[in-house]
Design brief:
Blueprint (H helix, E strand, L loop, with lengths): L1 E6 L5 H15 L3 E6 L13 E4 L8 H14 L3 E7 L1 H5 L3 H18 L2 E7 L15
Parallel strand pairs: 1-5, 2-3, 2-4, 4-5
């Protein structure tokens, strides 16, 4: 399952993501992972959330992002929740490519039974209509 937290910069998306990750650690029967560009969340998240700085892996573009997340799930079957802060910082602000990425990711998550929550810095109207169903 995919969940998108959409809004403009400063609208509280990251704060909501941190709260969701904190709640997930308490209820999840598996591993909780948070991926961000940089390490600004290291003091905001509990140590029980695996924090990954995507810069450590030289990932850029939505195709590389998809490969990274597919590898993450292939390497650890116990992941139940993944939280991604600022997906456009890594993939770029190409709304069409983002729509394709989300649809591919939805199929991957369906196979693994995991949930992925992403923060998206834009307005709902900017996103392809096909992925509006994922917005929370």
């Amino acid at each position: 399952m995919i969940k998108l937290i959409v809004g403009h910069k400063g609208s509280g998306k990251t704060k909501a993501l941190i709260q969701m990750a904190t709640d997930a650690v308490e209820t999840s029967k598996g591993n909780v992972v948070c991926v961000e560009k940089g390490d600004t969340l290291k003091f905001d998240l509990t140590h029980r959330v695996r924090l990954i700085d995507i810069d450590d892996y030289s990932i850029s573009g939505f195709d590389a992002c998809y490969g990274f997340y597919a590898g993450l799930f292939a390497g650890n079957y116990d992941i139940t929740e993944v939280f991604v802060d600022g997906i456009f910082k890594v993939g770029g602000k190409d709304f069409v490519a983002f729509g394709v990425f989300i649809e591919k990711l939805a199929k991957l998550l369906e196979t693994n039974g995991a949930t992925m929550t992403l923060t998206v810095s834009c307005e709902k109207e900017d996103l392809p209509a096909g992925i509006h169903k994922y917005i929370i």
